[in-house]
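Input:
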Amino acid sequence: MRGERRSSARGQSVEFADHRNYVAGDDLRYLDWNLYGRLDRLFLKLYEEERELPVTLLLDASESMGFGVPRKFDFARQVVAAVGYVALCGFDRVRVSVFPGRAGMLEELGMGERALSQEAIATEALGSVRGRKSSLQFLKHLGLLEARGAADFNASLTRCAMETKQTGLLVVVSDFLDPAGYEAGLSALISRGFQVHAVQVLAPEEVNPSVFGDLRLVDSEQGTMQEVTFGRYRMEAYQSTVRNYVQRLREYCTGRGITFFQVVSDCSLEELLLKRLRESEVWG
Amino acid sequence: MKFLSPLAFAFAATIPVVVVFYLLKRRRVTRVVSSTLLWQRFLAENQASAPFQKLRHNWLLLLQILLLALAVLALARPYFSGDLSAGRLQVVILDGSASMRARDGKPTRFESAKEEALKLVDGLRDRDQMVVVLAAGVTEVRQSPTSTKPMLRRAIRESQATDSPTRLIDALKLAETLTKDAVGAEVHLMSDGGTTDLAELEDKGMKVIYHRMGERGSNVGIVGIDVRGHPDDARQRLVFATIANTSSNAVSTTLELLLDGRVLEARNLSMEPRSTVSQIFNATQEQDGYFTIKLNHADDLDVDNEASVVSRLPQPMKVLLVTEGNGFLEKALRSVPGVALGVVRRIGAGKLSADVVVMDLPGTMPWPEANALAIRAAAPGWFTNAVETEASAVVDWRSAHPLLRSVGMETVQVAKTLAVQTPVWATSLVEAARTPLIFAGEYERRRVVWVGFDLYQSTWPLRISFPIFIANVMEWLGSGTREGGASTIHTGGSYRIPASESGGDVRVRMPGGEERLVRVESGEKEVLFVETTRAGVYRARVGTNDYVFAANLTDAQESDLWPREELKMGKHAGVTSTTVRRADLETWRWLAAAGLVVLLWEWWYYHRRTV
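Output:
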């Protein structure tokens, strides 16, 4: 199926892409006779193949994304909605993969049948969307999603890489705060051939905590506890820790050709979409 | 090492309490967060950068335990036994004179002196001893040598300044006695230096540290008061007052004269800086009473702004002449104004009602209980060998003595006289070549004028000087008899109150209104009242008799409030005031306070991390 998105794959179109040496068996219609006249050598003209671009949007809907004012999950949904909408308008096929998986988890949580059916249906519907006309439905289904449950980041990304038949653009929107790390998951995506973009969404409270004193912190997903004595005088040290963590993630991504963005959920969405993503040529 | 208070080790029980506090788990607030991942990293990184992170709490614990242990040790008052040299002796002399009540101290000079003395007590080392002496009209040892600081403090705090003139000599002599053989002894004199009587201490070599009190000399005071009869009108009295302005500014004020508390006259008074003026008031007095001069001027010293003088109307003096017949003498006595003369041939046994007895008869006899003019008469024991001899001419006489005022002896010849030695209690007034002709003195608290020759054996009764001498004698003997001559005393002085014949105690009402009861032993004829440290009018009641007397400061030196920079001790020695206090101030309190501050800071720092 052809789309309007220019692909790095070479094919038949009116857009000239490159030359290559002629080898036996090539279609003689694409020989560049002008070059033959000048250089006395046979070159074959290559054209860009215009086809539809599979856009995969990996949305972290784990419990940890439900924190922050505004919520990280809301911000993440807005990013997914924006990227998805642009893709749909370009006649690309959009697939939203929500992790952790909804169906089994909803049953485990004992949710009501209606909520179960609605979120499961929305998740299912977001599995494959195409065409501008579907954009409204796409946005509606995104709105039905909620952040809950514990996610295994690496396993989720690896499963996504395995399940996807056609690689293309892939945007991971998550907080990347998994105790098991993020390397295995991102590595699986890269090896599968995805053009990966990573958006890390952190809450303002995670960057600049406002709770002080003798604390017993409970991890929302893992349920583990951590005792901390925290005061304003240790704020700088904490922020340094956050910066180091983000920097390591950025370096990991950059080293593997992954475009990386770090945002705080109270920052301007327009800034991210219209400036930073455009500058990074996530879209033209 | 031994301990004075071993029971204080019981406080060591607090050390486990501190440990328990550390062992107690701190109460933590539970918060659900998105992920603890960042916090784990944060803790890991910070612990990694602080190698003693885990030990930090333990260091605090150790420090606190150490501090507590030291405090417990200090409370146990450890000491070492050993041969220790004796501590220094410090004698603190508090000048309690009137000028020390000047209000240019904190709030008075005396209070400043006490404050200074208390600082010296604070600086006293363990083995040092201190004596507290209050030098006022009477020198009083407020605290004998001791190292016990509470006793010294109490003695200093309870000391009060008086209205007496400065008299430091007794206190310094006492200090000299105390410090004579003491090594390193010091005498701390807290005074304004208003004294000039220290010449005796010139060669004593005493180590005196003079702490000068006072800042200025702003004062106007009454430095003299007297009352006399008017020479022309017996009902009129003349009150003399001398007022000194010791300040460096001109002063305008008012001066009031009061009789028994009633204002008789008020007049304005203007005085130049550092000047003295005399004022004479003329007042009519109907009965005995006391005059008060009051200065309405606000200055640093109140006590010299008021002075009183007791004034009694003149009474006829009863004179008893004992003679075989002496026309010259009788005539001369009758010519003295105010004399009621009685003449007898022989003095009888029993109490005399006369104020003055004139005995014109030779020989030794029991002495009458009155002031006496004795012509050849003597009491037993006056002379060892009195023989009549021919007298040479009068060779010398004391013309400055009140008895010889306007009396010239150059034309007097004496044929025969008793050759005697002047008794120790008397002063020779007129002398021949080998014997006194006339002497005077006080014998058994009675005034005596003795003439050694028979008047008929001399040319004196024919000379003008004789009636003048008799008049002088009557005035001198009379002033010593009639109560009132000594009814005005200086503060700190003594007043003789005649005891009642029927016995009974003496009640004295003080200027402030409080009463003092003075016990009178049986047989005592008079009581010496010395508690006159407050200026004002005192009223003594003895049986049915009332005696009024006044105590005044009236001391020009005391009213001059300018503090002296140097205390002169004779011509060559002196002590300059010191501004640097030599006090060994203990510092352990400051160190303990610093320790407490450190402990509080540590506590604050520890808890700040959780805020």
